[in-house]
Specification:
Layout: E1 3-8, H1 15-25, E2 30-38, E3 41-48, H2 51-61, E4 65-69, H3 81-84
Antiparallel strand pairs: 1-3, 1-4, 2-3
Helix pairs in contact: 1-2
Length: 87
């Protein structure tokens, strides 16, 4: 199962680089990324090639994170036509 991770980044140069470096040092590839910035607040959502190594990287940085099911709670193998049509 793929997992989206959401982290809050500090409003200072190098915050994103610090996260990317911690992932790269563990051989983790970022396979999807979305960033949102508003004034001085920023959030990063990403999906990676290795969820366990991503958790370890974030924990090593002392970075709080949230996890979200990448399917949005929808199992494609159990979806009906009404699910696909938006009910």
């Amino acid at each position: 199962m793929s997992v989206w991770f959401t982290v809050q980044l500090d409003d200072k140069p190098g915050s994103l680089a610090r996260v990317a470096t911690a992932l790269a040092e563990r051989g983790v590839n970022i396979t999807g990324i979305v960033g949102v910035a508003e004034d001085t607040d920023g959030a990063l959502m990403l999906i990676t090639s290795d969820a366990a190594a991503t958790r370890a990287a974030f924990q090593s940085l002392g970075l709080a994170f949230e996890e979200h099911d990448a399917s949005g709670g929808m199992d494609p193998d159990r979806m009906s036509l009404s699910d696909l049509r938006g009910r």
